[in-house]
Structure formats: C-alpha cells, structure tokens
Automatic annotation (TrEMBL):
<feature type="domain" description="Ig-like">
    <location>
        <begin position="13"/>
        <end position="102"/>
    </location>
</feature>
<feature type="domain" description="Ig-like">
    <location>
        <begin position="225"/>
        <end position="322"/>
    </location>
</feature>
<dbReference type="InterPro" id="IPR013783">
    <property type="entry name" value="Ig-like_fold"/>
</dbReference>
<dbReference type="Pfam" id="PF13927">
    <property type="entry name" value="Ig_3"/>
</dbReference>
<keyword id="KW-1015">Disulfide bond</keyword>
<protein>
    <submittedName>
        <fullName>Down syndrome cell adhesion molecule-like protein Dscam2</fullName>
    </submittedName>
</protein>
<dbReference type="InterPro" id="IPR003599">
    <property type="entry name" value="Ig_sub"/>
</dbReference>
<dbReference type="InterPro" id="IPR007110">
    <property type="entry name" value="Ig-like_dom"/>
</dbReference>
<keyword id="KW-0677">Repeat</keyword>
<dbReference type="InterPro" id="IPR036179">
    <property type="entry name" value="Ig-like_dom_sf"/>
</dbReference>
<dbReference type="InterPro" id="IPR003598">
    <property type="entry name" value="Ig_sub2"/>
</dbReference>
<dbReference type="GO" id="GO:0098609">
    <property type="term" value="P:cell-cell adhesion"/>
</dbReference>
<dbReference type="GO" id="GO:0016020">
    <property type="term" value="C:membrane"/>
</dbReference>
<feature type="domain" description="Ig-like">
    <location>
        <begin position="329"/>
        <end position="426"/>
    </location>
</feature>
Length: 434
C-alpha cells in the first residue's frame, strides 16, 4: 500500500477527448471513433457496449484497432447490422488507480442517398417583393430527412451574361446567415442565384437550378406590421418571438419588411428601463446591417428584450422579441480526490450546476436522475452503501481497500421542452497505510 506522499502523486484517469455524443456516418466512407486518455501511466483504452458489455471483434464490420480506436469499415447496404451500425457504445480508460467511463456514445450509419438542393423564397419573406426591400432565400434539401446531413457551402449570383460570382462574407449587398439562407439587403428588378449544398457524410456536393428573383417597382405601399416577420434560426420556445441561443455561439436575427420608399431598420435593446441602440449596450458583440442583427460570442449579458423598428416616410412600426441564453448544465463531485483510512466513512456529493441566467430551478433535483459508477461498473444498492434522496449523494460506511478506485456520477437532466441532457463527473478514492 502506498504512503500518503505517494498517493498525492497519483490521480485517477480521465478522458482528454472523446467523440460526439451522436455520430452519423456514410456506409461508403466508414467511421473511426477515438478516445484519448489522460492521467498517470500506463493507460489502457477499451470499448464497451452502451450497457457495459465487452465488445467482440466482427472482422470487416466492427474492429478495435491496436491504437485503441473503434473502426467501422465501409459496408454494402445489404451488410447493414442494426445492433452494430445503429448502436450505443462507451469507451473507458484505465490506469493503476481505477477506470474512467465515457457517457453513452451513439453511432448511426446512413446508407448513401442522392439529394438535391432547390432555392425557395423563404416563408419569412413577404409574398410581395419590392425593389429596394430585403428578401430572404433558402436552399431547400430534398429528400427532407437528408437535410440534417447537408450544409450550404456557397451561394452564387449570375449576371446577364451567364457569369457566376460567388457571394463572399464581405459583400455589402448580401449576407449568408448562420442557417445557410441568403439575405439580400436591396433587391433589384431581376436577379439570378444558385446555391451549393454539401453532404457532411460523404462530402458530395450538389448545385441548385438557377432561381430568378423578381421584384416589383413603383407604387407607394405603407409598411404594415402584418408584413413583418422575425426569422429565428434557433429552435423556438413558447411564443414565436422568444428564442434561445447557445453560450459562446452566434445568433442571426432578420426582420423583413417591404415598403416604398424603401424602409430603414433600427435595432434596440431594453436596458435600464428603456430601449437604447443595441450597439451602445453590447458593443462589438452586436452587429447590425439593415434587417440583420448578429449576436456574437453570446453570454448572459445578451439576454433580454430586443426591438426591430422599421420605418419609411409613410409610417413606422416595431416588433419585439426576447433572447434567452441556454447553457448546458455541468456536474461536480465533492470531494474531487479523497485519501481515506481503512474503516473511515466516506460521502461523495454530486452537485449540478446550471447557468443562473436561465434560472437554476430549471435543473432542480426533480428534473434529474443521478447514477453512480465505480471503475466503470454501475453501483447497485449494496450492504454498506446507500443513496440519499434523488441519488445525489453516495455514502460508503466502514470503507475497505476494495473501495479504492474511480467513482463517477452521471446525471440525466430533463430540460426545456422535455429535452434530455447527460453530464458526468468523477472522483478518486485512495487508501493510505494505517
């Protein structure tokens, strides 16, 4: 048994990196899953099923490589095995202190499928497009089920001579927003566009047929609030003017209106009892360009109510919406490390932390299911161990050398709209000579 000094130098293993919780791949490309361990050597990486059983080699279908990666070779559609190619896995890393287990990692193989892209006038644009007003074009993917695997990588404008010019980020006439749509700031009488979509599974690309955007000129149309739509690339929660963003990400909001004379746009944020220009509150993290508001590196300070004010010489109106930042919860086990004596009682506490700007009540214990593991094995109720209400605490009475190892707490958190998230944390327990 080690001395206290030797134990201080020891740490349980951890995973420095691991695959995404859900990974899709093409049957013509295959997939390699890699976990990287961290901690005092020697480190050993191994793979398990989602329920914790050791994996068997299936040559040509699923193989554990010598470098510790899990490899799914390309396969023919007729060789698809649901339990393998649409399965759940875990990787573990082991060292002399104990074993650290990853969360469940889901794998889903997609049999190659042809797709097409087609330009549509976004439903958030008005049916009537007037010269000088903004418009929004979307690059639609068919079949629809394949759209989640296609990224819009480019838009091009085509002149009257048939020459195609790629639309760049610094083009003042257009903006490709975060969902891949094309925002046109100042529509002309006739404009021709194409879009290009690329599959994230096999890197194959498709170019749309040319789309002719026609805008009407003349007329004196008074802006009407019913003709304004707010576009929310993020998922909607509750009312349509409430949106959620992710911590540190970028959110694009477009406020579309038509009018003649051409309308102007003003963006404001509610601050200290009144609406003020959004850039005066958020500085460079908020960028406005006509009907577009772009929030970058979002943090809790971006939460609040925003106003899009649209006006021309014939009238003014505004639309408000609320932005809420969504942050993934995290877990912390206390104590992080414990050097114990034989016979000592030990208590580990699994504490859930959430973004206070969303309200900590969103992640209260009634929304959480806690699960405990020791060295990669699920801890059921045993003599000398009991779990507190909601399983947040693990108590070990009259501890023995066999209790030494790496303990992990996993939590399934039921968040907004019933969406479940999984988080985990670990702690190491070691014993000193007595």
């Amino acid at each position: 048994m080690q001395t206290v000094t030797e134990l201080i130098e020891l740490n349980g293993p951890e995973l420095a990196s691991m695959p995404a919780r859900m990974t899709h791949f093409s049957n013509t490309v295959g997939l390699t899953l890699t976990c990287v361990g961290r901690g005092p050597p020697p480190l050993t990486i191994s793979w398990l099923s989602g329920t914790g059983e050791e994996l068997s080699q299936i040559p040509g279908i699923r193989e554990e490589l010598q470098n510790g990666s899990l490899y799914f070779p390309p396969f023919k559609p007729e060789d698809y095995i649901p339990t393998v190619h649409n399965g759940e896995y875990r990787c573990s890393v082991r060292n002399p202190v104990g074993t650290f287990l990853s969360p469940v990692l889901s794998v889903r193989a997609i049999v190659d499928h042809p797709f097409e892209v087609m330009i549509l006038l976004s439903s958030d644009s008005n049916d009537l497009i007037i010269e000088g007003s903004p418009a929004l074009l979307s690059c639609d993917v068919t079949p629809s089920f394949y759209s989640q695997f296609v990224r819009i990588i480019a838009w091009k404008s085509i002149d009257q001579f048939g020459h195609a010019t790629e639309i760049l980020e610094n083009d003042s006439r257009y903006k490709i927003i975060k969902d891949g749509s094309l925002l046109i700031f100042n529509t002309k009488h006739q404009q021709l566009f194409v879009c290009i979509g690329q599959s994230s599974l096999n890197r194959k690309s498709q170019v749309s047929a040319p789309f002719l955007l026609k805008a009407q000129g003349g007329g004196r149309i008074v802006p009407n609030p019913k003709r304004v739509n707010l576009r929310h690339p993020n998922s909607l929660v509750g009312q349509e003017n409430v949106i959620r963003g992710e911590m540190g990400k970028t959110t694009d909001i477009t406020c579309l209106a038509v009018g003649s004379p051409s309308p102007t746009f003003r963006w404001e944020k509610y601050h200290k009892g009144k609406f003020v220009p959004v850039t005066s509150v958020l500085g460079s993290s908020a960028k406005t360009q006509g009907p577009l508001l772009r929030l970058t590196q979002t943090n809790p300070f971006h939460n609040g109510t925003y106003r899009c004010e649209v006006s021309n010489s014939l009238g003014t109106f505004s639309v408000d919406y609320t932005f809420l930042l969504e942050s993934n919860p995290s877990l912390v086990i206390e104590p992080r490390r414990k050097v114990a004596r034989n016979g000592e009682s030990i208590e580990l506490s699994c504490n859930l932390q959430a973004n206070s700007s969303l309200g900590i009540g969103l992640y209260n214990n009634s929304n959480v299911d806690f699960m405990w593991f020791k060295d990669g094995k699920s801890l059921n109720r045993k003599i000398g161990q009991k779990k507190s209400p909601f399983n947040r605490k693990l108590q070990i009475f009259n501890s023995k050398l066999e209790d030494q190892g790496v303990y992990q707490c996993f939590a399934e958190v039921l968040g907004a709209e019933g969406v479940s998230q999984s988080v985990h944390a670990s702690s190491s327990i070691m014993f000193e000579c007595s």
